[in-house]
Design brief:
The chain is mainly α and 210 residues long. The chain has helices at residues 4-7, 19-22, 28-52, 79-97, 107-126, 132-135, 147-154, 177-182. The two termini are 19 Å apart.
Length: 210
Amino acid sequence: MPDFAALFPVCHCGADDCDDCSGYQMTPRSAAILWAVAHLHADFAYDDVQQFGDTPVSEKDGGWAAFADYPRITWGQDAVWRRQAARAFDDLAADLAAGQLPLATCPGEEMAMHLMLRSAQGAAADGWGVPPEKLSLLPGHEDDFDWDLAVDVLLQDEDILHLFDEQLDGIEDPESEENQRFRIGDYRPEAWFRPFQNATPRDGRRPFRR
């Protein structure tokens, strides 16, 4: 595990005029949990690719480790798309390992971050992801595991969650009335790994871990 105490030093002064204390601080323990669950989700996604390949996700098949948790519009995507989704978790984990906030650069990473934050909440509460004895070695902070604030800081919005609402089927298409009403942009699966206009694209030559 990276040295998150060194990568994410935090301020404890609590002063009202302190920019660090008055804003969001990624704490070492929060970073460790997020990094661990990112690797876990990536492993699950790569496992799905290895086991199922291009096979569409089916509600009748309970053997999916990762992609059954994705919106239904993605269930028919092929193995190439799924490997990109798996790499999204690795990219966000790499941000944390470099001492950077894991900010989503595309819809695929946005989905990955939502899943990571959901898992991180359970991991922190139930003591999995990072063994408690390892987590206790990292300095504690009053901002540890503030996942609600993390959602506000690490994600530009929660538009992608509309894709789980069956009543909003079709909203992923930028030409649809609902999409234009909410102004959410292109969330069709083929656009999931195109960088947001306000994000710095990742190196397209970076490898896949598996």
